[in-house]
Amino acid sequence: MREGEGSEAREWALILGASSGTGAAIAEAVTRKPGLNVFGVHRGRYAEGAVQLEQRIRDAGGRGVLWQADASSPEAAEAGVAALREVAGPRSVKLFVHSIAGASVGRFLSEGEDRLHARRIRRTFDTMAHSFVFWVQALVNEDMLAPEARLLGLQNPLDETHLGNTGLISASKAALEMYVRYLAMELGPRGHRVNLLKFGTVMTPALKHVYSPGALARLEAAHARMNPAGRMGTVEDVARFVTVLAGEEAGWFNGATIDFTGGMTLRLLDLVLNP
């Protein structure tokens, strides 16, 4: 089905961080099931990927609109939701996924360049945590949530362990988890559901940009040892499960942090003591 042949009647998914990685995989998956149009927000780092994603969404029978902006501020949230309303109309957003990243790594007490100073702290919390609230507020203010809408933040297992230089990421994700719980309480009586999906390392363009091929090979080997399944998770694994969370079967999840790590942390102590 091509754009215009039934896609206008669909409800919409709003996905922050949609042009690559997990966000792009989710956008493509929910176009097919449960059959949503996609309004994706991206920073423009993967502009070609955004164009390709729009085409894949059309090929799947939906309508894709990719909007370039830094999604971390309340002003961006207001502008983005206004643009979405022009395209989709009120009460049209069935699924909202917060998949943007932009964290600083380093140490709080370092005297070097990796010191986590105030600007880095504010930027990380705005991107990784506060922006979730900004966009939910804008969606509610503009009456954009469809009946029984699903709102989803993404989490990682860093809240369960210590990984050097990632304290700011862990702290911002902890804030996101609290936002999810409190918004679940506020939106629950309106019929909406707010949850947090926790999953482990997946291979993304951002990860490939940070690590060398050799480091990536070591990373995959380490995850193959940690995960009971013997492999690293994939963005497709995550995307398929999001389609489940968007369906009626998952309607009783609310305020939950859903463990989708595949048991990634179960063997950590064993790996240390029995290498």
Automatic annotation (TrEMBL):
Read off the InterPro entries from this record.
Answer: NAD(P)-bd_dom_sf, SDR_DHRS6-like, SDR_fam
Q: Which keywords are on file for this protein?
A: Oxidoreductase
Residues annotated as signal peptide: none
Enumerate the GO terms in the molecular function aspect. oxidoreductase activity
Q: PANTHER family given for it?
A: DIHYDROANTICAPSIN 7-DEHYDROGENASE
The record's family statement is:
Belongs to the short-chain dehydrogenases/reductases (SDR) family.
Protein name per Swiss-Prot or TrEMBL = Oxidoreductase, short chain dehydrogenase/reductase family
One of its Pfam families is adh_short_C2
